[in-house]
Write a structure and sequence with these properties.
The protein is an alpha/beta fold. It is built from 15 helices and 13 strands. It comes from Schinkia azotoformans LMG 9581.
């Protein structure tokens, strides 16, 4: 197998190239806010949020578009990264405060290799296409059909873990029965598929538009392999949560929760918000931000995060992780506080109460 990527030391992590990323930050919600220590003025928090530069982040975009960050007295700034590894290196180096769309597998890999990151919320679940050239679209009906094929994946990307786990569960040895080739970015992966260097691309939702333009065919989705898998988690450095008990990060989550509500109730807003940086027609933008396989949720969903951690260990993707208690790297308290504040601020809104019920089912007895 070619280019199998297993980070085993902090030194190896540091060797990954850091790049510049779109970052955003925010604080916002409209209810009563605590006054700062300076007179009667409310304190303004500043956050820098990194996310993938190819298409942005719908919940983040909506929160900015609707003024939810301003409501929470958050000042938002943006920095964009070409890959999850670059973004998380930026987080570790202090260039950003939050990683928003760097998957689940990548933060967990960094944690396995010594990074003190905390998962505090979510952004995306599912939504990653498995691609082939149009002429080959009828060749892949079951996982058995991937045997003997050269399969491209994105280094440290969640869909890669979902795919390898599905192969393992089907009794297919991903180290012997298929030839997995890892690429640093989704763009590199699509180019390899288009040129015939790989037969299949286990891709990313952020590359779906480019895949359509290139005439590539979708033969499956990550959701088909694992309907409940999580992807983009809201992650930060644990040491940043000590100031004001993580107040800025709680406020950031409140803005994301409100954005999630808006997206669910009026998907057109997601289109308008994304058009500020996606210079495309409405139909194309809608196909990106409202793709039905992509489920946007701000809930940390620690049950599924832990499940992926165990999958990564069981398939040999990460090593020497048995001594790590992953619960210590998952903080559900901030999200729960954010929800409870929204329930108090909007007592007539059933949506936030329903989200709390969902949170309790997906996170009970979890967290650090």
């Amino acid at each position: 197998m070619k280019n199998l990527f297993k980070v085993k030391t902090k030194k190896a992590l540091a060797a990954l190239t850091a790049a510049v990323v779109l970052a955003g930050c925010g604080v916002g919600n409209k209810a009563e806010k605590a006054s700062s220590t300076e007179g009667n003025e409310e304190k303004t928090y500043e956050l820098t949020v990194g996310y993938g530069q190819s298409q942005g982040a719908p919940l983040f975009d909506i929160a900015k578009h609707e003024g939810f960050f301003e409501d929470e007295n958050l000042k938002v700034e943006g920095v964009g990264f070409a890959s999850s590894a670059d973004g998380l290196n930026g987080l570790q180096a202090g260039k950003i405060d939050i990683g928003l769309t760097f998957g689940t597998a990548a933060p967990l890999t960094f944690i396995a290799n010594g990074s003190d990151f905390s998962v505090i919320g979510g952004h995306l679940e599912g939504g990653h296409p498995i691609l082939v050239q149009e002429k080959d679209k009828n060749k892949y009906k079951t996982l058995e059909d991937y045997k003997g094929k050269k399969i491209g994946t994105i280094r440290m990307f969640t869909s890669d873990i979902v795919f390898r786990t599905a192969l393992t569960d089907a009794g297919i040895d991903w180290e012997k029965d298929v030839d997995i080739v890892e690429f640093k970015t989704g763009g590199d992966l699509l180019q390899a598929l288009t040129s015939g260097k790989v037969d299949v691309a286990v891709s990313a939702g952020s590359q779906y538009l480019q895949a359509q333009k290139a005439g590539l065919a979708v033969v499956g989705w990550s959701n088909d392999l694992n309907p409940t898998h999580v992807c983009c988690r809201v992650v930060t450095r644990t040491d940043l949560l000590t100031e004001d008990k993580g107040e800025a990060y709680k406020r950031f989550l409140k803005a994301l929760i409100r954005a999630e509500q808006v997206k669910n109730e009026d998907p057109k807003v997601a289109v308008e918000a994304a058009k500020t940086h996606l210079k495309l027609d409405d139909e194309t933008v809608n196909s990106i931000v409202n793709e039905p396989h992509a489920h946007y949720s701000s809930d940390p969903n620690s049950h599924e995060v832990k499940k992926m951690w165990e999958q990564m260990k069981s398939i040999g993707y990460i090593e020497n992780a048995d001594e790590i208690n992953i619960n210590e790297y998952i903080n559900i308290d901030l999200y729960e506080r954010a929800l409870n504040e929204l329930i108090e601020e909007y007592p007539e809104d059933q949506y936030f109460k329903d989200q709390l019920d969902k949170f309790n089912k997906q996170n009970e007895n979890e967290g650090a």
